[in-house]
What we know:
This protein is an alpha/beta fold. Strands 1, 2, 3, 4, 6, 8, 9 and 10 form an 8-stranded mixed sheet that branches. 28% of the residues lie in helices and 23% in strands. It has one domain (31-200).
Amino acid sequence: MAAMIIDGDDMDRISELPEAMKLEILSRLPEKDGIEMSTVSKTWKSLPISYFSFTRRTRHINSIDKSLAILHEDQKRIIHYFRVWRIVAESDLIHVDRWLNLITKHIIREIVLDFSFHCESKKYRFPPTRFDVGSLMVLKLYDCVLEETLIQKDNGFNRLKELTLFNTDFDGVVMDLLSRSPNLETLILKPSRGSINKYIY
Length: 201
């Protein structure tokens, strides 16, 4: 693909766009390009972009709450990824609801939830509430239950490229999800009982 050259007049016109439109443009760029644009260009440098990844090193719920506090501001943000890796005890799953309700008010590109250390008796139910799935590009769920509220008649998964449902209950939901994901490239499915299947489109 040929490089696109933007002259000074074009850049001035871009800088005059509403912030919501500039966020939409930036959210459509690959992550690497988005980072470069937001750090190099004065036009994009002030736009709010966030990355959240919580692993076993994140020991306390309060630490995550503090990290996410910026999302309580009125300004809408691009969240390139929100990842929670095996750090929440079963009794604390209610906090995950709270975090997801917060991040899904913004433009979210990737969600990874790994609760594979939990017992079978209490899996996390995703999503806790309806949200705009149109910006979602990656969804990975481990030891969860996929809820029907994820499927919305008026909103498809037009940007979803990678879907992983590992040891996750998705009966009655996954076919609708796939039919609404025209750009899906990688699909990994392992139901709670059964063998893993991988399809690459």
